[in-house]
Design a protein that fits this description.
Elements: H1 2-58, H2 61-74, H3 79-102
Helix pairs in contact: 1-2, 1-3
């Protein structure tokens, strides 16, 4: 019985190996991109936040708040954090496939 189960799962294991490899490479590449963009966007968000505070004090309340919201979105706690969360979900999918196929 065990040999039959192994023979039935073998084609599934062979088909899923490239899928798991591609998901692993995709996550690694995206983590590197998110890391580098997080550093760059962190510096840009600091400049935009300072500009937002200056506009908030001197020119317009509405424009200052808009700049501060933009600064938050491009900061490491905004969109890069959402990208990291999404990459975590892709990695969870990879682990689910690995557990189901390879046991």
């Amino acid at each position: 019985m065990r040999a039959i189960w192994f023979i039935l799962k073998l084609p599934l294991k062979i088909l899923m190996a490239p899928v798991i490899l591609s998901l692993t490479l995709f996550v690694w590449i995206c983590v590197g991109i998110v890391y580098v963009s997080g550093l760059v966007l962190g510096l840009i968000s600091m400049v935009v936040a300072l500009l937002g505070v200056a506009v908030l004090i001197t020119y317009s309340l509405q424009n200052g708040i808009i700049l501060l919201v933009i600064a938050f979105l491009i900061s490491p706690y905004g969109l890069p954090m959402a990208a990291i969360w999404l990459l975590g979900k892709v990695q969870d999918l990879k682990f689910i496939i690995q557990d189901l196929v390879y046991g």
